[in-house]
Amino acid sequence: MTVSPNVLGYRCSLCGQDYAPDFSGYVCPLHGDSGNLDLVLDYAAIGAANNPRSLAAAVEHSLWRYLPLLPVGDPGYVGTPLRAAGWTPLYRAERLGAALGLPHLWLKDDGRNPTASFKDRASAVVVARARELGAGVVVTASTGNAGAALAGMAAAVGQPAVIFAPETAPPAKVAQLLIFGARVLLVRGNYDQAFDLSLAAARAFGWYCRNTGYNAFTAEGKKTAAYEICEQLTAATGAGGAGWRVPEVVFVSVGDGNILTGLYKGFMDLAALGWIDRLPRLMGVQAEGSAACAQAWAAGVDTITPIAAHTLADSIAVDLPRDGVRAVRAVRATGGAFVTVSDDAILAALAALGRDAAVFAEPAGAAAYAGLVQAGQQGLVRANETVVVVNTGSGLKDVKAARQAAGQPVVIDLNLEAVRQALV
Ligand SMILES: Cc1ncc(COP(=O)(O)O)c(C=O)c1O
Ligand SMILES: [Zn+2]
Predict the structure, then answer these.
(1) Is the pTM of this model over 0.90?
(2) Between β-strands 105-109 and 90-92, what pairing exists: parallel, antiparallel or unpaired?
(3) Which terminus of the chain is less hemmed in, N or C, by CB atoms within 10 Å?
(4) Cα distance between residue 202 and residue 419, in whole Å
(5) Taking CA 218 as the corner, what is the angle to CA 287 and CA 68, rounded to the nearest 5 degrees?
(6) Cβ of 253 less than 6 Å from ligand 1
């Protein structure tokens, strides 16, 4: 089995049990399917060969600029979407920030990935891993974006892929699955049911399983957004010193909790290497109708009790977050918080992001900004703090929701008087 020299092994996030680098399972065998594994990296070797300046000098404008910190080898495929994931823009959001009394507000727009969501980070690294393993078929369950990302990255390299998604997934996401040539199985059920069926199918047919959180390499791909936030913030603010700048607070929406877990891993990597001197407070944002992690966090427990999820933000509609334990712990460990937002607040955030920051988000992406608004009202953010809000998906993924947020356009007859009338 190919093992990157960066990898010392795997550690169970529930019981701390260590597994060797050539461990071939997905999760710790002691807890059924729920013992998600953390990759243990060789920080001494990574730190001896790399530093923030050497990485900043990289000409690679994708997440692969961080190859020295990743648990896979160079995947090749230069000039393809697999190689193009990540290195999304970090925008200064002055007008949005002014409205909230936050002069140091930044937006990380991961809708600008090759298949238009944050999930490209995970899928690029998982497909690289699948190629190393010589996998025949890669499978994932998805609310839509993880599947589109896997289908896209798989299409980039000619890798067969099977995607399980709810039949209610937004049409644009389903179109992506189909157009990238994946075998698409829309289930008569929700995401959680698709997840369980995909695991059973992976076992039955010997497929390599990308499922969010279940596959340890998903968080390793997603952690690259934390590196980018620090590197880009440092470059944009001209901060000096040998290390990188860290924001005080990062907001991100939470479905399974794997994006938040991945961001935490990224900041922890940088702290372990001594390249940042503290962690940002991680703020998990859930829809009110899909708040299993927020409820566990509020109750001060690690066990996640499943709920029956209902929200228009389909990407974060999850009954049982499959990476919930790590996400709740990461929020707690960084002194962050969970906030919950209504669907109306998500639509208002979607409109504000477009109007005041020129970022077109899908509902799950806009939820992160709605969370900032909510947190501001709860006094959880201070005016002098540097705040990063991560938009995790493009608004073109869900045009129906965008039209709900933006209202209807005016239709006029072809004369100047009609224009005049329309403007009053
Ligand atoms: C746009 C978007 N935002 C947020 C999330 C939530 O990520 P996670 O399930 O890792 O918490 C997803 C997951 O599908 C997503 O597609
Ligand atoms: Zn364990």
Answers:
(1) yes
(2) antiparallel
(3) C
(4) 58
(5) 130
(6) yes
